[in-house]
Design a protein that fits this description.
2 copies of one chain form a homodimer.
Chain A lengths: L5 E4 L8 H5 L19 E10 L10 E9 L12 E5 L5 H6 L2 H10 L2 E5 L28 H16 L6 E6 L1 H12 L6 E5 L14 H13 L3 H16 L3 H11 L8 H20 L16 H7 L8 H16 L21 H7 L24 H12 L7 H6 L10 E6 L17 E6 L17 H25 L1
Parallel strand pairs in A: 4-5, 4-6, 6-7, 7-8, 8-9
Antiparallel strand pairs in A: 1-2, 2-3, 3-5
């Protein structure tokens, strides 16, 4: 094993730390010494050598999986401290560490070792180094699967624990939450429980209506300021199509939105409209109650801001165009530093790795989405699996397996699962594919009516609504119970 | 999918069928119409195309997995009958079907569909056809793993169920019992429970003392008739070594044992002594209360027979030699049809596929065994992992991974497992690596003091001891409860 150790101090605002103490309200737990705030978000960057292919004996090559490590919260006197283990998802693991402040705050409280494990094929954890995504080597994508990833995590925990019996709690948000839940299901001997925040484990074929995501997004926009918001957005699609029919109209769009590249073709128009949709989704997901920079720098409750610019019903084309442009800038140029809008790169400035994710969509993460313009603010779009398959084969040489995840992780049948907290914010479009009802007494479902995408996993903030404070308090109580039970069992 | 369907009638003695009815003693269950005994052990032979590698997207090749199928017990009026699913192990699946009469008897009683699924790389389920074991293609062995096998079973169940909600119960004996237990642990949405008969899931590194197997075998021989049995066997090893030191002695052995090939080298001697050990193990495993032909044709309680021939303490070399020879014939020539003893092929006449198993021993099934002559009837043999590795690399190009199974299936930590019956016969050497204490209330442990290797899984026989009748009755009650619960949940 080759372990490169670099100490990095990540400076991160901890403005809302006082809110942590309020978790204790009614929990009966004590507020422990937090060992100094300056220790938050500090970690060593380490690596563990893991097999590229855990499941066959033909490929013996290995690669270095990156993880972040901090044991400064753990008590020296405790030989078996808890490990709070974040199951990394689609992006650089440092980004998740910085956007999951709750894990750090809880670790301080529970005196736990903090580990953020990077997901293979993301960040710096590349199974084939710089050749990982070499398009002349499509076979390099073969091991980009959930099962291989969970095995990476299992090996890392095995390595970290050694001979020590340590209670490990898995944490994850979004796809990371799915991984945390699945990890507990498949490796219950490795983790005593999992917090799966905003984990849409049912956003798969035949489990959830494909239009739920767009419906929830629409509902979030409809109720953010007033209903004119979604009416305006709903009308805008036809307007863009109409304008794109003439050179003058194309120029009107380019001017209104400060496009870097004006729309020249129908392909460009599609990209532009897809971009707008993506922005609306991201706004809903990151509709946090304070300024944030998770997917892009945004003000507090950005959807409300967007809808403020769309509060008047615009019958006039030019007015509607300008209103949409102003609204969009809440997302695209909140810092007023962007010179022109690059609609061809939807994830510019974000740390989410859509490149990697698009590959996962082509193997196992086949999530059907669709929309109907009659009951959403979006264009009508049927779910077209065939088109997905064709594109996947063309782009990556991969044939998607839409039922892989369901066959392996049980679909709606979670009867035998235990010690998983599924938390979902009702403002989050992904909540539609989440677990909103507990299948048994050992699974906890926590609903956060005022929450966007895994708000509970973020660091405390004075602007946090009561429902997320309550959710975090409940989560802490449940985790405390798991840990207590673990120590009781081994003693 | 290519499904070859052949109807085969397997004629099998059902002499002990009346004992089935005695299962109902005290269970409160009714004896149902058994639909005619002649339907037992009849099956269609079918095949399902499954991926060679379930876990990567690089290898898209498939092969036909064989399975046996009988739906004649199921009621036509029940659209969702139970499936009794045997998770095949190291051998031709028909052999297991014929030696697991209890599954058929229970299926008749529960009106269940019977499925015996063959394990990949055994019988006719060859991932690379006739080239599967081609020694110029060592990469063909890469997919010979537990995880790939469980995925085969999951795909088969998915296929068999289709859209129907059917309660599936997994059954397995020995390694098949390990698979049944692991299948329930990892795919609890696929099977409502598992009967793991004589499943030594803890016969792995650091989980169980490596000498337990030899100690139990010794104990079985010691108590079968009288203690002279093990004293004689214990002394015999040195005698063989002494005799093999001279040509006259070698001839003496060859004559006494009717060897096909006389012992010519020290390598031959090792093979002969290893053969004897293997025979003692097999005698203990198949120490059934009636004539059987599971590992070889044998009389009832063969260990008792063996020890009857060894009841007198033999101080004289020739006497001891002849006594051992007579004893051995209980196993090697019970049918009196064997012309000479081929000690170089220990599994001659058995359907257990030691060729395949030896490969599994070289990837994941690394089971440490050792013996000490001071407290067993065997030669002192330390566990030598390095030697195992060297041989595995030399013979198959495989490097064993001794901790794979523990990391994946939890080792001694079964806290989160549910709905598994671990049954073990105390006369069975494998019981030492079995689960003899329930880790939680949802796991059932059944001890059969008078049972050899998965006796409970065999068909009923008038000679069955009370403890196995009791075990089967308990198993039936538990299975009935699982099935009842399933139907309650879906209605």
């Amino acid at each position: 094993m080759f372990a490169k150790v670099i100490s990095i101090f990540v400076l991160f605002a901890l403005s809302g730390f006082s809110a942590l103490l309020s978790w204790n309200k009614g929990t009966g737990a004590e507020a422990h010494d937090l060992n100094g705030l300056e220790r938050h978000f500090q970690y060593e960057i380490k690596q563990l050598s893991v097999p590229v292919d855990h499941f066959s004996f033909s490929n013996n090559s290995t690669f270095n999986l990156r993880y972040l490590y901090n044991d400064t919260f753990a008590e020296k006197s405790n030989p078996q401290p808890p490990i709070f283990f974040y199951t990394g998802n689609e992006g650089d693991i440092e980004w998740f560490a910085q956007n999951s402040g709750m894990v750090w705050e809880q670790a301080a409280r529970f005196k736990a070792v903090v580990v953020f494990a990077e997901h293979r094929y993301y960040g710096k954890s590349m199974p084939f180094g710089s050749n990982t995504f070499n398009c002349t080597k499509p076979e390099h994508l073969a091991y980009f699967t959930v099962e291989q990833t969970l095995e990476d995590f299992a090996m890392l925990i095995t390595f970290l624990r050694g001979d020590r019996q340590m209670p490990v709690v898995a944490f994850g948000g979004s796809y990371g939450g799915m991984l945390a839940a699945w990890f507990r299901m498949k490796y219950p001997h490795m983790v005593i429980g999992a917090l799966a925040a905003s984990a849409p484990i049912w956003q798969f074929t035949d489990l959830t209506p494909c239009d739920i995501f767009n419906k929830i997004t629409t509902s979030v926009f409809q109720t953010a300021y007033n209903a004119n918001c979604t009416t305006n957005i709903g009308r805008s699609w036809k307007l863009f199509e109409k304008l794109a029919g003439s050179d003058a109209g194309k120029k009107q769009i380019a001017d209104a939105f400060h496009l870097c590249d004006p729309i020249k073709s129908s392909d460009d128009l599609t990209k532009f409209l897809d971009y707008l949709e993506e922005v609306y989704y991201n706004l809903a997901m990151a509709n946090y109650p304070y300024n944030s920079s998770f997917l892009a720098p945004m003000p507090a409750y950005p959807v409300r801001q967007v809808c403020f610019y769309l509060k008047d019903l615009h019958e006039n084309d030019a007015d509607l165009l300008n209103a949409i442009s102003s609204a969009l800038a809440v997302y695209t140029n909140y810092t007023a530093s962007v010179k022109c809008l690059d609609y061809k790169d939807v994830n510019k400035g974000s740390s989410a790795d859509s490149f990697g994710w698009n590959i996962q969509v082509c193997n196992q993460m086949v999530m059907p989405f669709c929309a109907n313009s009659s009951d959403t603010m979006f264009r009508t779009k049927p779910w077209n699996f065939k088109e997905t398959v064709d594109n996947c084969i063309k782009n990556y040489g991969l044939t998607p397996r839409p039922y892989d995840i369901i066959m392996r992780y049980g679909g709606k049948n979670l009867n035998a699962a235990s010690n998983i907290i599924f938390s979902n914010g009702l403002l989050d479009p992904w909540s539609g594919g989440g677990v909103l009802q507990a299948p048994n007494d050992l699974i906890q479902v926590i609903i956060i009516p005022e929450g966007a995408h895994h708000l509970d996993l973020r660091e405390s903030n004075p602007a946090d609504p009561p429902s997320v404070l309550d959710a975090r308090a409940k989560e802490a109580i449940i985790i405390a119970r798991w840990i207590e039970q673990f120590y009781l069992n081994i003693h």
